[in-house]
Amino acid sequence: MSIINPIHKRIVTAFALTVMFSLPLGAQEVTVDELFDELQLATVEQTDRITKQIETLWSQSGSASMDLLLKRGRDALRDGDTEAAIEHLTALVDHAPDFAEGYYTRATAYFESGLFGPALADLRTTLALNPRHFGALTGLAYILEEMENPEKALVAYRKVLELVPHDETVQEAVSRLEGVAL
């Protein structure tokens, strides 16, 4: 009986580990939907942490190669090399056309290059793939504001506040534009 007991323990342990590591990632971690629910009740102090968690989840393509292209694009942006960023991010969206974060990050690179048309196109694609992408909505609102279209910018900013009620920067933009858009 003493031999069976240690073997039994190993089998049970192996089974438990197999089940635990074979569960979908969403079953082990908080989901984007749960984080959006938290945002509705979050304090100003909690908002930044929760939005960063959402952005981290959005940055996971499911492919190490695609994640590497995203990282290289972001690194190039950080270093001020928008041309290299656009190249990496174009390769990313070519190979992962359903990965919203690739389009969003490329929109940022286009914007920083002064290319508002392509930036707007990528923001629209981002929002078609991920309608709750508050970063894309904020970017869209900012570009609309720069293009002297305060009414449409205000609509986009208000959509951000529906998703992230305590975004202080967006709250300030709404307050600023409410007088202009009248």
TrEMBL record:
The keyword Repeat applies. Residues 1-27 form the signal peptide. TPR repeats lie at residues 100-133, 134-167. It comes from the Bacteria. PROSITE patterns: TPR. Pfam families: TPR_16. Keywords: Repeat, Signal, TPR repeat. The keyword Phosphoprotein does not apply. Gene3D superfamilies: Tetratricopeptide repeat domain. InterPro entries: TPR-like_helical_dom_sf, TPR_rpt, Ycf3. PANTHER family: TETRATRICOPEPTIDE REPEAT PROTEIN 6, UDP-N-ACETYLGLUCOSAMINE--PEPTIDE N-ACETYLGLUCOSAMINYLTRANSFERASE SPINDLY-RELATED. This is Uncharacterized protein.
